[in-house]
Amino acid sequence: MSIKKTTLSILFKDLTFTDEEQDLIASKFELRKLKKGEILLHANDVVYHQYYVCNGCLRTYSVDKMGKEHTLQFAIKDWWISDYTAFFTSTQAIVSIECIQEATIYKVSRENMEVLFDKIPKLESFFRRKMEKSFANFQKRILGSLSMSAQERYNAFLNKYPDIEQSVKNYHIASYLGITTESLSRIRKKISKS
Amino acid sequence: MSIKKTTLSILFKDLTFTDEEQDLIASKFELRKLKKGEILLHANDVVYHQYYVCNGCLRTYSVDKMGKEHTLQFAIKDWWISDYTAFFTSTQAIVSIECIQEATIYKVSRENMEVLFDKIPKLESFFRRKMEKSFANFQKRILGSLSMSAQERYNAFLNKYPDIEQSVKNYHIASYLGITTESLSRIRKKISKS
DNA sequence: TTAATTTATTATCCTACATCAATTTTCACA
DNA sequence: TGTGAAAATTGATGTAGGATAATAAATTAA
Q1: Residues at the strand D interface (CB under 7 A)?
Q2: What is the CATH number of the domain that holds A66?
Q3: Pairing state of beta strands A96-109 and B39-41?
Q4: By CB atoms within 10 Å of each CB, which of A2, A69, A129, B139 scores lowest?
Q5: Residue A21 belongs to some domain of the structure
Q6: Is the per-residue pLDDT at A1 higher than 70?
Q7: Distance CA B83, CA B92 (A)
Q8: B1 has pLDDT over 60
């Protein structure tokens, strides 16, 4: 069994499991190590999996027609990541997933999720709540992009991902904020002087 | 029974129902007429309902600390609307819902949704799929806000909400796009000349 | 450790969109 | 049907953040 009880309690927080449930979950989760720069999912691939990040850092991003990258989100320790839009419907990914800091992850397929949901219904509510939070975050992000300046968005980013700065490049942050690295540089300078 | 079979088939598309199911649904849906300017939901209210738009036009928006309005989305004929972020958890709304063109809607409470899901499971999948689509739209909107110019976003808006222009004011559209009415005016002029 | 390369900063100039102010157009309703 | 208010347009000017280019700092490789 690759997953220990303590690990499970981190993954699923307040949920507790019987030994059988634990074994079943363990049999469906695959542990993987990722090197920096590795692409877990390419845009246009069909999405069969979602991933739990044990440590390290990943990001989802898309490339526009000008060749510019845009970061949709980062995932650090204890976050789940996938192209959920495509994952839900097993269709082609819009975004790619890249490892930007050496990471350990658990990989679960959509199929196996169904099996788990069927056998352990509380997992289904767990993931439903996750999705609801994710939905709420997207909503807030849209409102933020409509109402906040680049500097305010940067502060919101630091709040949302504390301690992430050492894991990601400035240009990743810039591509998340929708600005250039030069602008981010100026914002950081301005903040440091105040 | 306030809802007819034909109405239900519009509401739930490809789903079909027995007479009992139909009666049950009808008993949980409340028909309402809204006047232009009516506020269906105020930010900070607890959200107990979601709404189906038969005709007319509503929008969800929030007001930032500068007093500026930002439109999160519009809902026209055959759209569902609520502050889903708050609806999911019966918590306080972040956005308000305003009727911007005289409308007829169906109102359903979260509680009654649970009853319906329990008795008619296919409704639960129906709404799950709706949410997934909504999630996907939010994701696309974020990527759009990162990668597109105001003019491109305006075109994307026209695509997403065809025939909506006669229902909404320019300043509603502007507040959806994250620009001023003046800028929108210039964009429209530019487009009309090309 | 140095050299090579990647990343971040800074400076200059530029552009998309904002702000403010003045009209013009549209629309509600008396 | 005319009139006042709301909405949209236009113009002048300002500004946040973009583009380009040069330099500096930090990583990585050798």
Answers
A1: A 149-151, 178-180, 182-183, 187; B 169-171, 181-182, 184-186, 188-189
A2: 2.60.120.10
A3: unpaired
A4: A2
A5: yes
A6: no
A7: 9
A8: no
B183 located within any domain: no
Q: Which two tokens stand for residue B185?
A: 């005016």
A13 vs B38, which has greater pLDDT?
Answer: B38
Q: Is residue B26 part of a domain?
A: yes
Average confidence (pLDDT) over A55-72 = 94
Span B7-19, average pLDDT: 87
Tell me, what's the pLDDT at A36? Answer: 92
Domain residues for A31? 5-121
DSSP A2: -
Q: What whole-number distance in Å separates Cα of residue A59 and Cα of residue A173?
A: 10
**Per-residue pLDDT, A93:** 97
The structural domain count of chain B equals 1
The residue of chain B nearest to residue A130, with distances taken between CA atoms, is B88
Q: Three-class SS string for chain B?
A: CCCCHHHHHHHCCCCCCCHHHHHHHHHHCEEEEECCCCEEECCCCECCEEEEEEEEEEEEEEECCCCCEEEEEEECCCCEECCHHHHHHCCECCCEEEEEEEEEEEEEEHHHHHHHHHHCHHHHHHHHHHHHHHHHHHHHHHHHHHHCCHHHHHHHHHHHCCCCCCCCCHHHHHHHHCCCHHHHHHHHHHHHCC
Give burial (CB, 10 Å; 0-12/13-18/19+) of A38. Answer: middle
User: How many Å does it take to go from CA B151 to C1' D13?
Assistant: 22
Are A109 and A65 contacting, i.e. CB atoms less than 8 angstroms apart?
Answer: no
How far is Cα B58 from Cα B102, in angstroms, rounded to an integer?
9
**Are the Cβ atoms of B143 and A94 closer than 8 angstroms?**
yes
Residue type, B10: I
Separation of B65 CA and C18 C1' (Å): 18
Confidence of residue B2 (pLDDT cuts 50, 70, 90): low
Which residue type, as a one-letter code, is found at position A107? K
Is A144 part of a structural domain of the chain? no
Chain C bases near protein Cβ (<7 Å) = 7-12, 16-21
- Exposure string of B63-75, with b = 16+ CB inside 10 Å and e = fewer, is eeeeeebbbbbbb
At residue A194, the pLDDT reads 74
Task: Tell me what the mean pLDDT of segment B135-163 comes to.
Answer: 95
How confident is the model at residue B111, as a pLDDT?
95
